[in-house]
Amino acid sequence: MKKRTLYWLQGGGCGGDTWSLFNGRTPDLSQLLDSLNIELLWHPSISNLSLDAYHELHAQLFAGRIKLDLFCVEGSVVRGPSGTGMYDTLMGKPKKDLIATLAHQAMDVIAVGTCAGFGGIGADGEIEATGMQFHKFDAGGFLGADFVARGGRPVINLPGCPCHCDVIAGTIAALCQNGLGELDKFQAPVEWYGTMVHQGCTRNEYHEYRVEEMRFGEKGCLFFYLGCHGPLAYGPCNKSLWNHRSSKTRVGVPCFGCTRPDFPQRYPFFQTRNIEGIPIELPDGINRAHYMAYKGIAAAAAPKRLKDRKTGI
Amino acid sequence: MGKQIYTLPINRVEGDLELRIRIDDGRIADAWSAGIMYRGFENIMRGRAPLDSLVITPRVCGICTTAHLTAAAQALDEIFAAHVPDNGKRVRNICLGAEILQNDVRHSLMLYMCDFANPRFERQPLFDQACRRYRPLRGRSAQECIAATRQILEIVAILGGQWPHSSFMVPGGVVSVPSRADISQCRYLLEQFRDWYEKQILGCSIARWQSVQSQAMLDRWLNENPSHADSDLGFFIRFARAIGLDRMGAGHGHMLSVGLFDTPGATNGSQKLLPAGFFKAGDTTPFQQEVISEDISHAWYTDDEVSRHPFDETTIPYATGNEGPKYSWCKAPRYQGLPAETGPLAELAVAGNPLIRDILRRHGVSAWARQLARIIRPAVILPKLDEWLQELICSRDVFFHPYHACPDGRGIGLVEAPRGALGHWAQIENNQISQYQIITPTAWNASPRDSRDVRGPWEQALLGVEIADPQNPIEAGLVIRSFDPCLVCTVHAVSL
Description:
Number of helices of chain A: 11
Radius of gyration of chain A: 21 Å
Helix content of chain B: 40-55%
Mean pLDDT of chain A: 96
Radius of gyration of chain B: 22 Å
Number of helices of chain B: 19
Strand order of the largest sheet of chain A: 2-1-3-6-9
Oligomer: heterodimer
Shape of chain B: globular
């Protein structure tokens, strides 16, 4: 297979996507790189280049003597204060300048995680964080709505806080094998972001019959009262399990909608905004009147074993 | 060679760090540590709902996310006056412990010892072996470490949903109710990790290792059996001594631990498995959070007061660039006005670990001692985690006690995170967060100077370090990384 190069940059972020990537089993990081013949030019948590080799790498990249195939950005683009980017610098210069340079040289740009995609944690803060090609729901972000990488694609967004290891590895593999499928309206691959988070949740039978919890530590559904975004957010959490074992919703932690462009939401976590006991926000594409009728009937049909929390999850 | 000043970006530190060092005749004569990123969580947090800290603060750091969750939950426990049942404490401890285990071996085998495979050491007799073991993603030990740490973190997913970034701890305990089958799975995962740790890292059983209680016994242990000398611990000791890590990186010698693991079954409030304390000149004094302050004289913030307790702190960014004395986004935490280093070495020194105390008595602090403490800490933690898992299997107790509406008030969460002392100071007014301050372990270690011009711990530790090649100043990196820096925490978590 043709050799490709990968540069991983961390902006305004926590490094969580990197450590999520280390959760990968099939493939693990070594297998991913080896099987696709990828040379990892730089990763801030992995590389052991000496200082002069690091400077030489950048000189070669800027001069175009090293071709950059995959540019992965983790963390937001920090623009503050007042657009200068001086809240996040490298050798005295704003890191956003390096991000722009490398984005324009790369064949493909991958925004790994919600911060890189949409601004995430700092998008409403004084650091003026933004995503690579979106600011929350709005196209544009750092590179502008018209940006297209040299390979002909816009920035590929892989939201999640963090992004699941299989999604990162799968997207890199798809790009190397010319097999990247359709992207959704937020430029995320439908393959992984065409599924609701609660699809596959072990509490789904409770959800179905509207057996809803108002306090922690129970078996029922968390959607009506405890702020769960499982039926509202797109992501593979209950299909590609976390750490190959479980998911937040399975163990009783509400989904916080961390793949959504407005994560972290402005309203409180752990509680559902509702009108007369019915959530304000309903699953994508649902008619409110129909939903209320359906949930009324579902609750009436709930078997005793669920109402008594007898059924395991 | 005359005096020269170099600015060095340092990677493999979880975040962004630049060191400015003055080299005088081949040795570091002065050092300035600069956190170069600010994320300003305070405006995000202020005005948010009380429980939101459980979602936001784990996102401060992708590798010590469970430690932040624990500290946030403990601060809320205090505000809500919530009583955490013993099983809630056990699940919290087991998950925090699993995170510490992954961190200690990942840092040692992947982030630290990969410098032993740097061409700078190619004339060392052990260099070829170091490359075979620790070359990034390729070395045998590095690859085994990736597999073993991935697996130990499955425990956090079974009990808490996912790693990193879950929010399963809430005031009054944890939300999950793991079944016996779940806990049994955790025990098998722990057992497999323990077997690997004993075989690969120690080269002997934990029981054998526990009898190593002095420097002399350590040397005897090293030469007693080829499996000891060839283990990753044995190799570390040999290589580190060969390049002089045991003679560099001393620092101030003051150490702080806020105590590891809330013991289940404690009768009066919180009791820690490894005690909290301040270690200075061979003596430990009891820990008091009241004497902690943060100084902003050399950090890019502005305030009427240069130094305040976390409950009274402000965070107003004030970037002056190279103008004036300010040079870092890290504030300078002080304990009784003194800088203090924190981490596994401090934790074990404060707890009176015989081997660590003997090494400190004979040779003082060094980069070698710091890293040694980190590699051997799993041997202290592993038996306790297994004990708590066994207790969980037998117990019928609940994991969570429901709490009532949130009152106004203040709460403090103090947790020994993988890298040392972590504190969350939270205040709630009218059902909203009105103040949230975090002091992370790396804030202590990476601290800039304070208003009395006293250097931070690793600035001090760099003094006198010999730099063979300023273009490849690997010795400075080895001293800094012996603190296991986590800049993503520090530079943006000075305040929430």
